[in-house]
Amino acid sequence: MSENCSHNCGSCSANCSSRKPADFLVPPNQYSNIKKVIGVVSGKGGVGKSMVTSTLAVLTNRKGKKTAILDADITGPSIPKAFGVKDKAYGNQFGMLPCESKTGIEMMSINLLLDNDTDPVVWRGSIIANTVKQFWQDVVWGDVDYMFIDMPPGTGDVPLTVFQSIALDGIIIVTTPQDLVSMIVDKAVKMAQKMNVPILGIVENMSYFKCSDCGKIHKIFGDSNIDAIAEKHNIPVVCKLPINPDVAAKCDRGAAEEYEGEWLDPMIDFLEKMD
Hints:
Blueprint: E1 33-41, H1 49-62, E2 67-71, H2 79-83, E3 90-92, E4 95-97, E5 99-100, E6 106-108, H3 125-137, E7 143-150, H4 157-165, E8 170-175, H5 179-194, E9 199-204, E10 209-210, E11 217-218, H6 226-232, E12 237-240, H7 245-252, H8 265-273
Helix pairs in contact: 3-4
């Protein structure tokens, strides 16, 4: 530090020990009290990230926890459809109000604001990122035990905005068994590490198919190396989801809350221990 230091780092170009990294975190709406915020990410699209997000919300809700989903996948929103929510969001003098599913899961998504669900969102990255921040800051979430943020795939503007702007308690990475995906998982892991965001677990979707007639397990996409990846990065929880047409069909018809299965229970148990 210089003897002539004015302590105004914003107007100084010197690189000294007094300079602190910029804090981009923004608070939620003043009428929101959100205890745990979990990001659900994937390195590429088509791995079932939104289905996993929906299922995690359903399972925590069944545990008696007030649960919410912030759909940050602005150009590919699917959360309202998975829950069969067709109402449009509206606001009052305090802010925007989230919609609720049949069992009380709160959600905010761009599809709850568009006139038609099929209208495309053709926006620049900066506008999309700011929209996600508005979902965090301007929505009156109320008291929430667990909020899951359904991220868009990749490591672009929106994941960066979420990592920088929202105080995440951790992320869950969704992937599939192909060898190519391990490289993409590494990218997501490295981004989280650079942003100092804890990685809570990995969910390997479409890990295998179990024949309903003979019970034999078929590894459609080859042998998995997800356990080795988790060990390499010291990731505490690994869940493996089978190819299950029934789960996909329920999401397609807006019945995500009818989910039946125990494959994500280890992740839910881990999240409960964070309380």
